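Chain A, query sequence.
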Amino acid sequence: MISTSLGAGDVGEAADTFNMALILYPRNRRLIAKGKEIPDLYGKPFYDEHSKGSLRSARILLSILHRYHDFKSVVDFGAGNGTWLRAASSCGAKELVAIEGEWVKAYPGKFRGAAYRYANLNARISVEKKFDLAVSAEVAEHLDPSRGPSFVADLCRASDVVAFGAGPPREQGVGHINCRPQSYWIEQFDRRGFTCLDAFRPAVWYDKRVEPWYRQDMFLFVATRRLRKFARIPRPSLVNVYHPLMYNQAVFWDHLKGVIDPRSP
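Chain A, predicted structure.
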């Protein structure tokens, strides 16, 4: 278990222990509380490591969406250093809004073409207008477990078209305190009148240029009244599916037991 007092040399080891423990004990409240004691869990090295693959993946995924939806204004909830907005600009989007925490103010590599709005993602967020597209890619699993439903509500108010993906239970990563089955998120959007479409997975499942977590997790959610425009995109025939590159022994044992959502003690 993570120590209650961490020296500088212990931070990396504590973070590794925390992240591995979350695989075994998803959404464990005591573990989440301990994790808050680890400084700089999402520091510059985290974003430096993921930026290149994130940008490459976002360009491919948004180019797929652009075939059906000519988005000109985009808001990204949990934008990080702005890779998805940079990709959106490559598709011709002009109005780009990034919602992220205060930490990103000092990040040297953030996308300067986006207007940054600094906010606590664990608190309710409202935007002043409807955007053509809202994005949240691999963010919701990092938020407090109680935040999930209201986070989806905030996305749905921001746009009638939402590109969303979040890690399922047992997904390895940094600070994955709110991993949920895909069916959980689909239900949250459904409650708000949004239909899930399988716009991305069939196209990129075997595409090595796209990071495996995006191949596994990304879906398109569209307000039901807008579905006619997206009629050529199928609804998912199978959910709660793990990509082979994201599979681990804990997932294997869950499947043996028929468990979709492992819960912590």
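The chain has two domains: 1-41, 44-257. Residues 1-8 have pLDDT under 50 and may be disordered.
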